[in-house]
Amino acid sequence: MKLPAHEYLDQAGLPYETATFPDSTEKGAANVAHALGFRESQMVKTLIFETGAGERALVMVPADRGAISGHLKRALGSRNIRLASLEAVRETTGYEVGSVPPFHWQPPGFRSFCDAALMKEDRLGVGAGVWGQEILVTPDTLVKASSARVVNLTDRERPVEEGP
After folding, report:
1. Quick one: residue 74, left, alpha or beta (phi over 0 = left, psi -120 to 50 = alpha)?
2. Is residue 49 in some structural domain?
3. Considering the domain boundaries, does residue 104 fall inside one?
4. How close are the terminal C-alpha atoms of the chain, in Å?
5. Do the beta carbons of residue 19 and residue 36 sit within 8 Å?
6. Burial of 55 by CB count in 10 Å (0-12 exposed, 13-18 middle, 19+ buried)?
7. How many domains does the chain have?
8. Contact 30, 63 (CB under 8 A)
9. Which pTM does this prediction carry?
């Protein structure tokens, strides 16, 4: 099955693998990890957040972690943030919550953030746009494909931005 996310990676010349899991698998990146035999830290949650100014941004964190509110607020540059509604996610990405690919749908200037913890993994799983389909990429490919800025969103002991 060739999906728009696959075509995007092909056109960009970025390497990836595909994987499938039963579409009866309960929703959630952690459940996908178990279905595919990966660690939860290797599956990427793709979340859309909204700022008080109405900006929407993609935030990618490992399935076994959540973004720290203060870190996320600093990264987004807004004290007023919230998780986007199901309708807002669909309107922004063209996809239903549960298998939003982290690339190919973003208009120019759309901001994407990748948690630094994901960069420690050798391979990551991301939604392909259809439940039951997964794309496997390296962290570097994920960052390139999504034009993401790598920041610390999940480790309270480290600042959001690392020094040079």
Report:
1. alpha
2. yes
3. yes
4. 42
5. yes
6. middle
7. 1
8. yes
9. 0.95
CA-CA distance, 125 to 113, in Å (whole number)?
Answer: 16
CATH code (residue 85): 3.90.960.10
The range of the structural domain enclosing residue 37 comes to: 4-9+16-151
Percentages helix, strand, coil for the chain, rounded to the nearest 5?
A: 30, 25, 45
In this structure, is residue 163 part of a structural domain?
no
DSSP state of 163: P
pLDDT in tens, the chain (164 residues): 899 999 999 999 999 999 999 999 999 999 999 999 999 999 999 999 999 999 999 999 999 999 999 999 999 999 999 999 999 999 999 999 989 999 999 999 999 999 999 999 999 999 999 999 999 999 999 999 999 999 999 999 999 986 54
**162 domain-assigned:** no
How far is Cα 49 from Cα 43, in angstroms, rounded to an integer?
19
Amino acid at 61: V
